[in-house]
């Protein structure tokens, strides 16, 4: 039996600084009434707030300095995303960050240097990865033929409606490739918006049938395989960080209610049946943050090893379960009001349902953890 025992966790000065700045920014720019105001809008976020985030350099945190980024590494994005989750701030930052990571890790910086610079400067980018709704499915059915013509459909493409650049994961001759498409290359009607349970998020089904690209828009080679694998893990980590922040905010909202609502002449927060689950959520949030920052310590700009993979999967499993439980308790503790759309508890339980599925749910990651930690066969 092989057990990975790397428990290293370090929060750098840069991460601490980013956490302080991001918490204050997100708290000021995304109070709950503004979150609700964006729910029914087309994009789900305020373009002015997004531009302020770009001006702060957040889109280039993990990108190399040679491309206009900060070169701080993907781990430095974690405190920013956690703060966004705490404020329920919906923007394309996660999508854009992961798209930049796919390019750089696939060795595309030399070929697509201008694209990396645009992403660092705030151009919205996203990855068209899934051919079906199953995150456990690794087969690629989207095809790029010998004439560089695409065929197939991608589903749950995050922020596709506002993306200026789409990185399409396809196969050519049985080998994975990454195809760069600009928004104007998509034919009219190619994007079909999904209706999501979490209204702070946006994703779509994108039809790629018949789109012809230039050879310079295709990135191939052995590095692409590793890059796709790494991005799946990094996506899980960033969603885990966001979910952890949302769970912490959910707990704050619930506790505030417990301290004001009275029943039978007593504050309901004084009842042990409510106090104990609140403490359980607090412990779970602390545990999820530990897992997330442990993973943030281990991920690097190079191909992720087994320690980093284990840490990312543990973080996603723990964070998903934590937000699930926090959202469920928030609805229950608010009583009949908790089941209404107007109650803020709804925002958290909806976020829990959405983030649980993104980049694999807890069961998916624990299945892989069994293989990693117990030498179990696939």
TrEMBL record:
UniProt keyword terms in alphabetical order: FAD, Flavoprotein, Oxidoreductase
Gene Ontology molecular function terms on file: acyl-CoA dehydrogenase activity; flavin adenine dinucleotide binding
Cofactor(s) listed in the protein's UniProt record: FAD
TM helices/strands, residue ranges: none
Domain Acyl-CoA dehydrogenase/oxidase N-terminal residue range list: 12-122
Acyl-CoA dehydrogenase/oxidase C-terminal domain sequence ranges: 236-373
Stored InterPro entries: Acyl-CoA_Oxase/DH_mid-dom_sf, AcylCo_DH-like_C, AcylCo_DH/oxidase_C, AcylCoA_DH/ox_N, AcylCoA_DH/ox_N_sf, AcylCoA_DH/oxidase_NM_dom_sf
Matching SUPFAM superfamilies: Acyl-CoA dehydrogenase C-terminal domain-like, Acyl-CoA dehydrogenase NM domain-like
One Pfam family of this chain: Acyl-CoA_dh_N
Family indicated by similarity: Belongs to the acyl-CoA dehydrogenase family.
PANTHER family documented for this protein: ACYL-COA DEHYDROGENASE, ACYL-COA DEHYDROGENASE FADE28
Protein name: Acyl-CoA dehydrogenase
Name of the gene: acd
């Amino acid at each position: 039996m092989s057990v990975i025992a790397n428990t290293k966790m370090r929060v750098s000065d840069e991460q601490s600084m980013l956490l302080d700045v991001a918490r204050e920014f997100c708290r000021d720019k995304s109070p709950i009434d503004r979150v609700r105001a964006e729910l029914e809008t087309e994009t789900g976020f305020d373009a002015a707030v997004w531009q302020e985030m770009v001006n702060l350099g957040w889109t280039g945190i993990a990108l190399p300095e040679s491309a206009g980024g900060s070169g701080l590494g993907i781990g430095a994005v974690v405190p920013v995303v956690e703060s966004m989750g705490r404020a329920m701030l919906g923007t394309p930052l996660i999508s854009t960050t992961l798209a930049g990571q796919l390019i750089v890790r696939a060795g595309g910086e030399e070929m697509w240097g201008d694209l990396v610079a645009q992403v660092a400067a705030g151009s919205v980018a996203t990855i068209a990865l899934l051919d079906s709704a199953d995150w456990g499915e690794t087969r690629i059915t989207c095809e790029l033929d010998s004439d560089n013509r695409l065929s197939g459909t991608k589903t749950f493409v995050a922020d596709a409606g506002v993306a200026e650049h789409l990185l399409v994961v396809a196969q050519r001759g049985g080998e994975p490739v990454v195809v760069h498409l600009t928004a104007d290359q998509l034919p009219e009607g190619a994007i079909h918006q999904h209706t999501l349970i979490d209204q702070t998020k946006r994703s779509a089904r994108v039809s790629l049938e018949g789109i012809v690209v230039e050879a310079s828009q295709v990135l191939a080679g052995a590095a692409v395989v590793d890059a796709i694998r790494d991005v799946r893990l990094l996506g899980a980590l960033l969603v885990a960080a966001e979910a952890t922040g949302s769970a912490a905010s959910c707990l704050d909202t619930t506790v505030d209610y417990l301290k004001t609502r009275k029943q039978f002449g007593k504050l309901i927060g004084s009842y042990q049946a409510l106090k104990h689950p609140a403490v359980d959520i607090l412990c779970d949030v602390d545990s999820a943050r530990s897992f997330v920052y442990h993973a943030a310590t281990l991920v690097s700009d190079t191909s992720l090893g087994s320690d980093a993979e284990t840490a990312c999967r543990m973080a996603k499993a723990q964070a998903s379960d934590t937000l699930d439980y926090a959202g469920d308790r928030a609805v229950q503790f608010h009583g009949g009001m908790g089941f209404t759309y107007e109650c803020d508890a709804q925002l958290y339980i909806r976020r829990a349902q959405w983030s649980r599925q993104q980049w694999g749910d807890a069961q998916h990651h624990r299945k892989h953890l069994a293989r990693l930690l117990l030498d179990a066969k696939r």
